[in-house]
Design brief:
The protein is mainly β and 324 residues long. It folds into 2 domains: 169 residues, Chitinase A, domain 3, CATH 3.10.50.40; 136 residues, Chitinase A, domain 3 (Roll), CATH 3.10.50.40. Helices cover 7% and strands 32% of the residues. The protein is built from 4 helices and 19 strands. Strands 11, 14, 15, 16, 17, 18 and 19 form a 7-stranded antiparallel β-sheet that branches. Strands 5, 6, 7, 8, 9 and 10 form a 6-stranded antiparallel β-sheet that branches. Strand 6 and strand 7 form a beta hairpin.
């Protein structure tokens, strides 16, 4: 399994808004809400006229071309909820346009299925993070984002965004999600005979000892910690920490712990056994998933990770959150 990229799927179009071009680095520490300094409004953002109720798709009047040299933000509707700061994850309904011709590029459906954005310039386009930073829940924002804060000189050929095009980002800040814990915090469960032994470091990082036995031929699931959070549904997007070990070699081939942060994916977007091992589990749980080849990479294996066609995989997974 590989760490999935953060993708936003809207109206049948996969729009990669992850930070892959320009943008400044994220500060080491998140500022307090009282000290938050939002991006200022400007002529470009003020010129975009937005009407309609919060939470419903707005009517947006863009007199193209709309351009900016730095990200500008105008507050169309001022919310009175909690204020978002650097590092917060937000539920957002949005529509995004090409400022050069006013063409709509993508939008959420505005039907209680918002997209999640983290206020972090290293994870999403810098201009999106700048627009959302310091906003309050219930607000509608208009951001005009120059190329330097979007895809830079590369543009985005999939969307038809040229290197010189600014973006117009209209966003409704629906809610701020609770912080994701660092590790599973469920109640300890008795280990199951025949499964690999798991030992946790002080920070929660698992180490795995493979039994001196042939691997099982069927998918195996062991719950080491039972959480009391939401249940993971088939197709849900989960936030997890995990480590993957090859039963044959005993070597770790992948680890979010090693990268220093959890990862997100849909249960349908990973190898079959991994997704099946999570569905029906609860947030706060730690599970061991033993995956035979036919539930993993199959006959092709995964050469880059040192996984052969006959290798059984072991994952220890902390389930930290599930998207609502």
């Amino acid at each position: 399994m590989r760490t999935p990229l953060t993708l936003i799927i809207v109206a049948g179009l996969a729009v990669s808004l992850s930070a892959c071009a320009s943008g400044t680095a994220t500060p080491d520490a998140s500022p307090a809400a009282a000290d938050c300094k939002p991006v200022a409004a400007g002529k470009a953002s003020d010129a975009v006229k937005v009407t309609g109720d919060f939470g419903a798709k707005p009517t947006v009047d863009i007199t193209a071309p709309v351009t900016a040299t730095a990200t500008e933000r105008t507050v169309s509707i001022e919310g009175d909820g909690e204020q978002a700061v650097e590092g917060d994850k937000l539920n957002v309904e949005f529509t995004i346009y090409n400022g050069t011709d006013g063409k709509e590029l993508s939008a959420t459906e505005y039907t209680d299925t918002p997209t999640q954005f983290t206020v972090d310039e290293t994870k999403f386009l810098a201009g999106i993070a700048k627009t959302l930073d310091c906003s309050t829940v219930g607000s509608r924002l208009v951001g005009v984002i120059p190329p330097v804060d979007s895809w830079g000189d590369a543009g985005n050929t999939e969307l038809g965004v040229a290197a010189t095009d600014s973006l117009v980002f209209v966003a409704d800040v629906v809610s701020i999600l609770p912080p994701v814990p660092d590790r599973a915090d469920g109640a300890d469960q008795d280990p199951v005979d025949g499964f690999p032994a798991v030992k946790l470091a002080e920070d929660g990082t698992p180490s795995v000892t493979i039994p001196d036995a042939d691997p099982p031929t069927e998918l195996g699931i062991e719950v080491l910690k039972k959480g009391d959070g939401a249940e993971v549904a088939d197709g849900a997007t989960v936030t997890v920490h995990y480590v993957g070990v090859n039963w044959t070699t005993g070597e770790t081939f992948d680890s979010s712990w090693g990268r220093g942060e959890p990862t997100e994916f849909a249960t349908t977007g990973v190898i079959p056994g991994f997704g099946k091992g999570l569905v029906g589990q609860t947030v706060g749980s730690q599970v061991v998933i033993v995956i035979p080849p036919d539930e993993g990479y199959g006959e092709a294996g995964q050469e880059s990770a040192g996984i052969g066609a006959d290798d059984t995989l072991v994952f220890v997974v902390d389930i930290l959150a599930v998207a609502a």
